[in-house]
Each structure stands twice: as structure tokens, then as C-alpha cells.
Amino acid sequence: MTGRLIYLIGPSGSGKDSLLEAARVRLQARGCRMVRRVITRSAESVGEAAQGVSPQAFARMDAEGAFALSWQANGLSYGIPREIDDWLAVGDDVLVNGSRAHLAQARERYPTSLVLLLTVDQAVLRQRLLARGRESLADIEGRLARNARFTAELIAGNGAGLFVLDNSGPLEHTVERLLCCLDHECS
């Protein structure tokens, strides 16, 4: 019996962490494991239940084979612990907060993965990014333009194996849609 890798992707500010937190209890009740990422940013500034490590520690962990998946984005390194392979091997579903840019590599390693793209209306995304206060207005506008292009390309190139969850409305609606997708009721 093999579990499913559920690969959640979406732009920064789309609400991935909020969705995961809101769905946590219901996902765990279904036997779905949620992975704690390793990131080269302090845990306090990450905004998610991640393990913050130094770039040197990350490089060492990566060289030692600690990660099933790893990538770099926005000047940071991200890793998904190798233990997910053990969980998948015993039949557990495993949900990871992944990277849109790393999707091809994830699909290569886990060809039967369920890919969920979390989207949000551009105006809502702009407000969320402004509220975070991490980037200048010019950086935010650049991020929004890149996100629109990337999302359109991703949907066009991966339509058959990609399910879109719109997180522009109430979070509970997105949680329900997520659970429906896990029950193979996505369309």
C-alpha cells in the first residue's frame, strides 16, 4: 500500500499556512500527515510551523541526504524531510507545502502526487502582501505580475493533474474544497 503525496503550492500570501492550520485537525483525523518544512529563516519569522536553520546547517543536512525534496526560492533554502518516504511507504497520505517552481522535480520523484494550487484574487493578494510589510510596493507589484504569469502558465501546462483552490473567500470554504479534493471529488 502506498500513500499519496499531496503537494500544495501557491504564491506567497495566498494563505497556504492559514489553510493548513485551519484544516489540521480534520486532515489528521483522516490519517493525513502534515510535514514541517526546514527553512533557512528563523522559525519566528516564517509564519508557519517550520524548522528554521542557518544556511550552513541546511547545506549540511542536504549533503547528508536529510531531504526528500529541497529547493531555493527568494533567497532562502527549503527542505522536505526524508521521513515522508517512510510515511508514504506505509500508506499514509502526506501533505507538503511545496514550491511552484519545484513542481516538475516533485512530480518526477512522486509521479502519482495530487497537486493543489492555492490561488487568491490579485487585489486580495496585494493587500495581504502589503500587510506583511516584508517588501516594498515595487517588489510587491513585481511579485503580483510574476504570479499572474506563472499561474496562467502552470494551469495551461498542467491542467489534467492540477486542482485549483480559490482562497479569496472565507477560509472554511477553502478547507471544504481541500477535503473534497482529497476525497477525489475535485473537478
TrEMBL record:
Enzyme class: transferase
Pathway: Metabolic intermediate biosynthesis; 5-phospho-alpha-D-ribose 1-diphosphate biosynthesis; 5-phospho-alpha-D-ribose 1-diphosphate from D-ribose 5-phosphate (route II): step 3/3
Catalytic function, reaction form: alpha-D-ribose 1,5-bisphosphate + ATP = 5-phospho-alpha-D-ribose 1-diphosphate + ADP
Source organism superkingdom: Bacteria
Binding site for ATP: 10-17
Cited function: Catalyzes the phosphorylation of ribose 1,5-bisphosphate to 5-phospho-D-ribosyl alpha-1-diphosphate (PRPP).
Family the UniProt entry places it in: Belongs to the ribose 1,5-bisphosphokinase family.
Protein name: Ribose 1,5-bisphosphate phosphokinase PhnN
Gene: phnN
